[in-house]
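Quick one, probably user error.
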């Protein structure tokens, strides 16, 4: 299909998908019924509901699917995109289910000071193939795959304001975005999330709540996205988090350092990650995420460098509608992250719309994104400096 036809089709899809509808849900009494928004609400009247509430066990999940087009791209794939690399088509991205118990102060057996919890989260869909930890479910070759995203034990001790040890497999604390689709402001992920930081870790992480507003973490893990490590070196992970007295500001700084290449225990990969989030009002929120990475000997024996920043602004119009803009710049100096040296920017605009008042778990998220290369043609198999994508993402949580 030529570029003109793709553009016409893309605009047509966008117009149809972005147009609001007048769907209204109401009860027989012409009033919106109070929705049951999660699994706990559904099972609360049962004996199972009594059990999970008594022990503070939370089962939850979601499904996420998207329809996307790239009207100016002739190639089948999008360059520098991780979770939405296909230029055209439908993706069943995530079917996610988790069972979690968060340990709290005095939440132990019979009110004991030491409390035990943990989390098991499984993921199925096209995203699972992208976040597999090496050595875990590697044998799959389908487009939609299964992944054990998290499996960890958590123990909380009454030290200072609380010391929590997490042991097992868990998602990284780094970055402003996450693997879990509903917890992101936009359907597509930033370059920073896809290339600057890891997705998951396997190991132990200790988090000390030093006061009501500050916490520090330190962990020893196998490395970046590994279940079965490819060398004999361990990786260290540290974090600091602070919340302002007004709770309008949150600052988090993370650092990770360790040898990550196969059979190499000496060359260190280091990333410093920082995020600042600010609430200006009930209607306006912003966030800024920055990453700087180095790796010894990764670029033909020389040290490699990558860095970038992403800014987010979210405007809440009603309980059912919000809009987010993201602007980002990412520089891979030596091409070790993107496969070739590049300076990329992106501008993304998206909505989070709950079209049915009686079904607030349903989110419809249209998005328009423009990627640009400052170093010459990088997109569309090296033919274009720009890449445009239109996406309609639908998430249903439970």
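Nope, works fine. Designed sequence:
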């Amino acid at each position: 299909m030529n570029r003109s036809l793709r553009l016409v089709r893309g605009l047509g899809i966008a117009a149809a998908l972005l147009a609001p509808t007048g769907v209204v849900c109401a009860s027989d009494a012409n009033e919106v019924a109070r929705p049951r928004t999660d699994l706990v609400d559904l099972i609360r009247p049962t004996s199972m509901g009594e059990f999970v509430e008594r022990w503070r066990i939370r089962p939850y999940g979601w499904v996420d699917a998207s329809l996307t087009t790239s009207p100016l791209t002739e190639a089948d794939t999008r360059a520098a995109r991780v979770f939405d690399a296909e230029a055209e088509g439908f993706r069943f991205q995530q079917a996610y289910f988790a069972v979690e118990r968060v340990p709290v102060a005095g939440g132990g057996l019979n009110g004991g000071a030491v409390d035990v919890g943990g989390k098991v989260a499984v993921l199925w869909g096209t995203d699972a193939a992208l976040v597999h930890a090496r050595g875990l479910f590697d044998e799959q070759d389908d487009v939609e795959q299964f992944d054990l995203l998290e499996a960890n034990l958590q123990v909380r001790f009454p030290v200072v304001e609380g010391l929590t040890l997490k042991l097992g497999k868990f998602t990284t604390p780094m970055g402003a975005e996450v693997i879990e689709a509903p917890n992101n402001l936009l359907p597509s992920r930033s370059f920073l999330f896809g290339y600057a930081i890891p997705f998951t870790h396997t190991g132990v992480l200790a988090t000390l709540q030093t006061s009501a507003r500050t916490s520090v973490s330190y962990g020893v893990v196998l490395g970046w996205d590994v279940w079965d490590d490819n060398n004999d070196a361990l990786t260290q992970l540290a974090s600091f988090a602070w919340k302002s007295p007004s709770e309008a500001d949150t600052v988090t700084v993370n650092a990770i350092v360790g040898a990550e290449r196969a059979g190499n225990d000496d060359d260190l990969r280091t990333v410093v990650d920082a995020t600042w989030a600010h609430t200006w009002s009930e209607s306006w929120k912003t966030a800024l995420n920055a990453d700087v990475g180095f790796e010894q000997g990764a670029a033909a024996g020389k040290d490699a460098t990558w860095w970038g920043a992403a800014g987010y602004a979210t405007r809440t119009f009603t309980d059912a509608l919000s809009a987010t803009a993201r602007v980002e710049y990412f520089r891979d100096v030596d091409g070790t992250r993107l496969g070739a040296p590049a300076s990329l920017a992106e501008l993304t605009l998206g909505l989070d719309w709950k079209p049915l008042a009686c079904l607030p778990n349903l989110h419809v998220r249209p998005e328009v994104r423009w990627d640009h290369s400052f170093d010459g043609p990088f997109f569309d198999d090296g033919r274009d400096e720009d890449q445009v994508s239109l996406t309609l993402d639908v998430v249903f949580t439970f």
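The helical segments are 3-18, 39-43, 47-54, 128-131, 191-196.
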